[in-house]
Amino acid sequence: MKAKLLSQMIAATIIGGLPAAATQAEAKDTQHWAVEEIVVTARKREENLQDTPIAVTAFSGEGMEKRGVTKLNGVAAYAPNMSFQSNPSFGGASNAASIYIRGVGQKEFLPTTEPGVGLYVDGVYIARSVGAILDLVDIAQVEVLRGPQGTLFGRNTIGGAISITSQKPDAEFGGKVSVGLGTDNALTVKGTVDIPLSDTLHTRISLADMSQDGYVERLDGVELGDDDTQTGRFNAVWAPSSDFEMNFSAEFSRDRENGPPMTLMDINLGNPIDPNTPPMAVIHNVVANAMAGATDGSPCANPINKINLDVPGCYDLRYDLGDSKNAGTAPAKSESDFKATNLNMTWDINDNLTFKSITAWRDLDAEFSRDGDHSPHRVSQFHDTLEQTQFTQEFQLLGSHLDAKLNWIFGLYYFDEDGDNVNTLDFTVSNFTSGGEFSNTSKAAFGQATMDFTDWFSLTLGLRYTKEDKEFTPDQVILQNYFAGSGHPMLDAPFMQAGTRVLPLATDKQSISEVTPMVNASFHLNDNTMLYASYSEGFKSGGFTQRVFPPQVAGFTAPADASDTDLIPDFDPEFVEVYELGVKYTGLDGRLKLNAAAFHTVYDDLQIQVFTSVAPVTKNAASAKITGWETELSWLPAENWLVEASYGWLNARYDDIDFEETFIDPGNEFERVPERTASLAVSRDFYTDIGSFTARVDWSYRSKEYMDSFNTELIAQDAYDLFNANLNWTSNDEVWDAQLTLKNITDEKYLTTGIIGDAFQTYEGIYNRGREWRFNVKYNF
Questions:
Q1: How do beta strands 186-196 and 174-182 pair?
Q2: Is the separation of the CB atoms in 375 and 319 below 8 Å?
Q3: What is the distance between the terminal CA atoms of the chain, rounded to a whole angstrom?
């Protein structure tokens, strides 16, 4: 079968709605009034969503536009049991994705750790989280697959996968141009043109420029949280015959921004969580006291209000300026460039066999920095450069036999990436480099088959074999010791001097081989109801801890007989087993769709970030269980009305966790995983002599969410509600479109991410921008 464009998701448009009120009554006699069908490719072949026995939420590009969603992380408001944050961690990247589905994910951007949710664009795995907050430009569909996708998607999809499909060229010349204005001088200009070069060769070019002022201002005038992005894409589809198609794309993105809008929330002037961690803020204040002439060793800051203005050099809460100001002075930037090419080929060998090839290359070049103490002092300042190149090749052979009762896929997958991440860290006690070179290779063979034994019973079996080889070569050196000559037994120790390597210049290696099975049974009780049950396994790769301090030196801070590779901390893969029951129902003559799923996850060798020094170290120190359920609804209660709703509930708990290793209480909740998520949207279509209007109101809810595994209340976000509204207009000739969007109508203030640095003793957070508006006009030709 020839590759086709993915159809639109559930939309606020009712089939049969016509551009003018005069023809609407006539249409009701000839058109069936039902929710539009959704076609997904969650199982690597096109299927109706309601016939796909896995938990999938799908959005069309048009549907995202109608919601006013412009970036990929906006889907989290509508997909149950999902968190999608932009989390810079200790770096300064303003587009680092932190994605959690059903309680499983990863918040760290470092290339020596792996994400827990896989991100795919046109079938290609995107390995690094930096740059993964994608702008939704020329997108056909977004699918959120919940639960392990270990068979077909494979790599690091332990929590789920997000699959993005871009728009393909049209066979006729045409295009669209749009201009949008909004809060804080937001300006978005987009253009797309389809240029058919022949009956068999069609091309499409898309360009976009997006800018917006920041909303956290540093005292030196630098605005944080700004946007300055240019992106473009070229796509060519060549179909010389009905059984062969070649799809080539090349794209780029360029970001030039000042970094994330982080602010200081508090300072811990007591002891760090880990008693062996050097307290950078306290050490700074001891020095500030001494320079001010204090001899009694009293704290620099007043213990009551944490401010002592009598000592100018104090690092205290005078630098807590609220959620819109920042007193940092260190360089602030977030710059990234990526380039990518993709070649997809589909060949229908005969009526029963199809061969597909996906070849892709992607290059990422990023530099980011920020002031982690948010003050003029040097307590914690960060600078990163990240270079990464990846190549992927996937072959698929798909078969359909026995009058389409047996459908199967067999595939081979190859992934290769290498790069270099250099962290330059300037702390109270030392200036040193961290990071190093990394290289990862993954090879896999996979297969999945679905047999329809009867009209009502189908069984799917899947298996994937994965072999991964990972390497890390740290290049980490102390550049300057600010306590050299002080005689301090620790801060002026021989292994703390300039020129000392923090980790040995050696290559540590890991090899991992895993088999991940899946079994799924579906039961069609009638034409409207399908039940399914599944068991699946998944794993997330192990890796290396690249942030280490003080230096790991045999005979001083490590055992005397430790080898060079022994001194490089690493961690093993983590694993899940998931049991799931689901139902998909279509009723009321196609006007109601209700999907629900309940699941139980067994989590072993859980990778936990623990503070044992100046930075978190990842260890396999826990096991856990996650139980939950979710439901999604689309309902047409009356003509021209649409109601959409979702609800998710999670109970994530540790079964076993080593407190001595992690300092995490076994009763703590998972970080960045709210217990409940919910959404509700109501839209109404109106038809007039000047065009059609769609009015939409959205509500979303998230229960309390802890931003760290210690469940620190100061950087936790209490439950909150958000209300959005959109008004869309389309002219009768469908040439003009306009949209007015209001986000966060009640101006709710909430944390989008929070960070605690045990050694730095700072509590940091990013608050949302507040109430926003956007107005967009689009011309179609």
A1: antiparallel
A2: yes
A3: 31
Structure tokens at 400: 């359909």
Q: What is the mean pLDDT of residues 260-274?
A: 90
pLDDT band for 748, please (50, 70, 90 cuts).
Answer: very high
Q: Containing H/E element for 462?
A: strand 457-474
C-beta neighbour count of 276 within 10 angstroms = 9
Which run of H or of E encompasses 259? Answer: none
- CATH for 21-780, among 3.40.50.720, 3.40.50.2300, 2.40.170.20, 1.10.15.40? 2.40.170.20
Predicted model pTM: 0.92
pLDDT in tens, 308-337: 787 888 999 999 999 999 999 999 999 999
Nearest one of 9, 208, 53 to 519, comparing CA atoms: 53
Cα dihedral value 150, 154, 159, 163, nearest 10: -120
Tokens describing residue 564: 């060079």
Can the peptide bond before residue 550 be classed as cis, meaning omega within 30 degrees of 0? yes
d(CA 328, CA 767): 17
Confidence band, pLDDT 50/70/90 cuts, at residue 9: very low
Do 54 and 534 touch, CB atoms closer than 8 A?
A: yes
**Residue 504 in this model has a pLDDT that exceeds 70:** yes
- E strand spans, 372-507: 380-401, 406-427, 430-452, 457-474, 478-481
Q: Which two tokens stand for residue 226?
A: 């700004």
The mean pLDDT of 717-740, rounded to a whole number, is 97
57-66, 424-433, 570-579, range with the lowest pLDDT: 57-66
pLDDT at 731 over 50: yes
- In order of 12, 574, 689, the CA distances from 19 in angstroms are 14, 54, 8
Identify the pLDDT of residue 17.
30
Q: What's the CA gap between 300 and 297, in Å, rounded?
A: 9
- Chain centroid offset of residue 138 CA: 19
Amino acid at 216: V
CA distances from 579 to 20, 44, 520, 537, 711 (A): 50, 22, 10, 9, 28
- Tell me the domain boundaries of the chain: 21-780
Instruction: Please provide the average confidence, as pLDDT, over all residues in the chain.
Output: 91
Does residue 16 carry a pLDDT above 50?
Answer: no
CB atoms within 10 A of CB 294: 16
d(CA 53, CA 521): 8
What DSSP letter does each residue of 234-246 carry, written as one string?
EEEEEEEETTEEE
The answer to whether the beta carbons of residues 767 and 261 sit under 8 Å apart is yes
- pLDDT tens digits for range 553-576: 998 888 999 999 999 999 999 999
Per the document, the length of the chain is: 781
Confidence class of residue 269 from pLDDT cuts 50, 70 and 90?
confident
pLDDT digits (tens, 9 = 90+) for 340-373: 999 999 999 999 999 999 999 999 999 999 999 9
Q: Residue 701 corresponds to which tokens in the numbers above?
A: 């809810």
Structural contact between residues 395 and 378, judged by C-beta atoms closer than 8 angstroms: no
For residues 343 and 245, what is the distance between their CA atoms, to the nearest angstrom?
A: 11
Q: How far is the CA of 278 from the CAs of 265, 501, 544, 612, in angstroms? A: 21, 19, 22, 10
Q: Is the pLDDT of residue 295 over 90?
A: no
Phi, psi of 372 (to 5 degrees): -75, -15
Report the candidate in 65, 54, 235 with the shortest Cα–Cα distance to residue 142. 65
Q: Is 318 helix (H, G, I), strand (E, B) or coil?
A: helix
Q: Which residues pair with 584 in a beta bridge?
A: 530, 595
Tell me the residue type at 718.
Answer: D
Instruction: Mention every residue, 6+ apart, whose C-beta is less than 8 A from residue 148.
Output: 157, 158, 159, 160, 516, 518, 536, 537, 538, 576, 578
Q: What does the block give as tokens for 81? A: 């049991």
Rounded-to-integer distance, Cα 245 and Cα 266, Å? 58
DSSP state of 28: H
pLDDT of residue 13: 28
